Amino acid sequence: MTVPEQRLQEALTTLKKSGVRITPQRHAVLEYLMQSMKHPTADEIYKALEDKFPNMSVATVYNNLRVFLDIGLVRELTYGDSSSRFDCNTSDHYHIICDECGKIVDFHYPSLNEVEQLAEQVTGFDVSNHRLEVYGTCEDCQQMAKH
Amino acid sequence: MTVPEQRLQEALTTLKKSGVRITPQRHAVLEYLMQSMKHPTADEIYKALEDKFPNMSVATVYNNLRVFLDIGLVRELTYGDSSSRFDCNTSDHYHIICDECGKIVDFHYPSLNEVEQLAEQVTGFDVSNHRLEVYGTCEDCQQMAKH
DNA sequence: AAACTAAATTATAAGCATTCTAATGTAAGA
DNA sequence: TCTTACATTAGAATGCTTATAATTTAGTTT
């Protein structure tokens, strides 16, 4: 069994445990998210599945993404651009984003615990988590710029 | 001259240098941003100025924010919630955001250069900058939760 | 100081992502 | 198989932001 397939099985188990029904559409949205190495928008998921489910509503995609978010199966990524992206890799990692083409690449780095600790001391907040995004130009766009 | 006043003067000089006209509305938007310790949304700016400029259009606020963004006088902050916030403090700093009330507080911490460097090596990106946001519950909301 | 012109403002319409609503359909247990 | 609470659907509605076209104006030129 491949890694995405295994994650899908685990996710389905989590859904069942949470008392959430497994419908064909829900299954398909989850499967697409798990297999995608990108971080798709709701519309990208919708378009990717319209062959399989010609009658599926965009609302269904949004509804299911919300369900997955609530259970903690996916994370929502919001950047400057208009629409949210969804990341099914919930393990600790950061993102590096191309200023030119918007590509998002996962980037592993040890968690910045000392920043969280200092933030608590200085601001009095009860810190829950943090987000780090690095911006730059990806190799593809660097090549493009040379020609 | 107070610090916000001084920053306003500097900003006006920058605008002139960039060949941007100083209109009363533009001046007012900039002044409000500079004096505000919060990170207002476009609508908050619009509402704050409607006494002074009863005929001002929301479009004017958006237009001017874009001008300021292009020149680098302000930064746009986009989080999960619907509308962008604007930060006229362009010095290096991070933000800590309350999960409950959405309050955004400036938080100073040395720039994470080593993260940028590692990201370049690992991903091949030409890194330009990065963003760090810490999330948690502010003191006010911690108090509220107790009662 | 008056005239000029490119840029800014205004009011309104339009666009887009997302959410809501109400009717219909269905997964999963009894 | 029957039942029912939950999901899906289509389409309307919402809210933020941008576009359009007409009017006004800042800042320069005469």
Q: What would you note in describing this structure?
A:
2 copies of one chain form a homodimer. Chain A has 147 residues and is of the alpha+beta class. Chain A folds into 2 domains: 3-87, Orthogonal Bundle (Arc Repressor Mutant, subunit A); 94-146, Dna Ligase, domain 1. Chain A has helices at 3-17, 24-35, 42-48, 58-71, 113-123, 139-146, and strands spanning 75-77, 85-87, 94-98, 104-107, 126-137. In chain A, the strands form 2 sheets. The first copy, chain A, has a 3-stranded mixed β-sheet. In chain A, strand 3 and strand 4 (104-107) form a beta hairpin. In chain A, helix 2 (24-35) packs across helix 4. The longest helix of chain A is centred in the N-terminal third of the chain and has 15 residues, at 3-17. The radius of gyration of chain A is 18 Å and the shape is globular. The model of chain A has no long low-confidence stretch (mean pLDDT 91). The A-B interface holds A 76, 78-80, 84, 94, 96, 98-99, 105, 107-109, 112, 115-116, 118-120, 122-139, 142 and B 76, 78-80, 84, 94, 96, 98-99, 105, 107-109, 112, 115-116, 118-120, 122-139, 142. Strand 5 of chain A pairs antiparallel with strand 5 of chain B. Chain B binds a DNA duplex (30 and 30 nucleotides) through residues 20-23, 25-26, 41-43, 55-60, 62-64, 66, 82-84. Chains A, B: It is found in: Cytoplasm. Chains A, B: This is Peroxide-responsive transcriptional repressor PerR. Chains A, B: Its cofactor is Zn(2+); Mn(2+); Fe(2+). Chains A, B: Manganese-dependent repressor that controls a regulon of oxidative stress resistance and iron-storage proteins. May act as a hydrogen peroxide and organic hydroperoxide sensor.
